[in-house]
């Protein structure tokens, strides 16, 4: 069964959408609706009381605990490990090692130190979701020897990253994973105008996928969604 993940905020603010859930109370209300609408997991950018993204273990652990309480059914809680949040690699890794209640976290291969972050997560028992933005990143992942230890690979395609259609680029990454012998689950998604084409492509391939204000505030028909839950319902209707 494929996983539909919701991405409620990313690094964005209410200037992107007035219903962007920035505070913890807003996030919990938003995610409760998203889980009821059919989301089976969440990709979190945890915020502190001032609304700033943080890796502070105390804030992360409390947020994950509160999110876990929202649903009687198991939900996957994923986080970002984006380097812009804590630029110093050693500090970032030290904080990640103290996280609790995190099922997995996404590590972008485009960021320096990605392999060190992955190894620290594996040592701590946090699942690794490798964020692959381009087929050109695959040789580094294969050479690292970490591919067989991944929980998932996220195939993340942005508009303008290639002259090919998004489905073509996603297939190129997926084919390279096949050639490397990887059998771990794959999550395919895009952003902006490529969001819905790649959601459809993911469902066709049997991949996990995601929707949410982090990627696009627009519904498949181009209308602005009223909430993240509206985006989840639209995705469910396409599957």
Describe this structure in words.
- This protein has one domain: Aldolase class I (TIM Barrel), CATH 3.20.20.70.
- Helix 6 links the parallel strand 6 and strand 7.
- It has 239 residues and is α/β, with parallel strands linked by helices.
- 40% of the residues are buried.
- Strands 7-6-5-4-3-2-1-8 form an eight-stranded parallel beta sheet.
- It has helices at 24-37, 57-68, 89-96, 114-124, 138-144, 166-179, 195-205, 228-238; strands at 4-6, 41-44, 76-80, 104-108, 127-132, 152-157, 186-190, 209-211.
- The N and C termini lie close together (11 Å).
- The radius of gyration is 17 Å and the shape is globular.
- The model has no long low-confidence stretch (mean pLDDT 95).
- 37% of the residues lie in helices and 15% in strands.
- The protein has eight helices and eight strands, in the order E-H-E-H-E-H-E-H-E-H-E-H-E-H-E-H.
- The longest helix has 14 residues, at 24-37.
- Helix 3 runs parallel beside helix 4.
What is the correct CATH architecture? Answer: Alpha-Beta Barrel
* Global shape: globular
Total number of domains: 1
Structural class label:
alpha/beta
CATH homologous superfamily placement: Aldolase class I
Q: Give, in order, the helices and strands.
A: EHEHEHEHEHEHEHEH
The CATH topology annotation reads as TIM Barrel
Number of helices: 8
Q: Radius of gyration in whole Å, from Cα?
A: 17 Å
Assembly level: single chain
Q: Uncertain regions: pLDDT < 50 for 5+ in a row? A: none
| Strand residue content | 15-25%
**Mean pLDDT across all amino acids:** 95
Please list the strands of the largest sheet in the order they lie side by side.
7-6-5-4-3-2-1-8
């Amino acid at each position: 069964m494929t996983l539909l993940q919701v991405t409620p905020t990313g690094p964005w603010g209410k200037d992107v959408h007035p219903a962007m859930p920035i505070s913890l109370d807003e996030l919990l209300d938003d995610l409760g609706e998203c889980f009821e609408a059919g989301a089976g997991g969440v990709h979190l950018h945890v915020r502190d009381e001032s609304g700033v993204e943080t890796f502070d273990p105390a804030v992360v652990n409390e947020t994950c605990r509160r999110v876990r309480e929202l649903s009687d059914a198991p939900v996957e809680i994923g986080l970002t490990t984006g380097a812009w949040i804590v630029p110093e690699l050693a500090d970032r890794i030290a904080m990640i090692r103290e996280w609790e209640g995190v099922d997995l976290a996404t590590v972008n291969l485009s960021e320096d130190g990605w392999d060190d972050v992955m190894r620290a997560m594996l040592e701590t028992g946090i699942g690794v979701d490798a964020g692959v933005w381009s087929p050109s990143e695959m040789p580094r992942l294969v050479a690292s020897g970490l591919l067989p230890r991944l929980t998932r690979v996220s195939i993340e395609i942005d508009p303008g990253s290639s002259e090919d259609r998004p489905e073509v680029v996603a297939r190129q990454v997926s084919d390279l994973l096949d050639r490397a012998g990887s059998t771990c689950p794959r999550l395919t998604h895009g952003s902006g105008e490529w969001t819905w084409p790649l959601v459809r492509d993911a469902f066709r391939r049997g991949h996990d996928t995601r929707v949410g204000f982090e990627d696009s505030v627009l519904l498949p028909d181009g209308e602005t969604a009223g909430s993240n839950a509206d985006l989840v319902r639209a995705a469910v209707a396409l599957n």
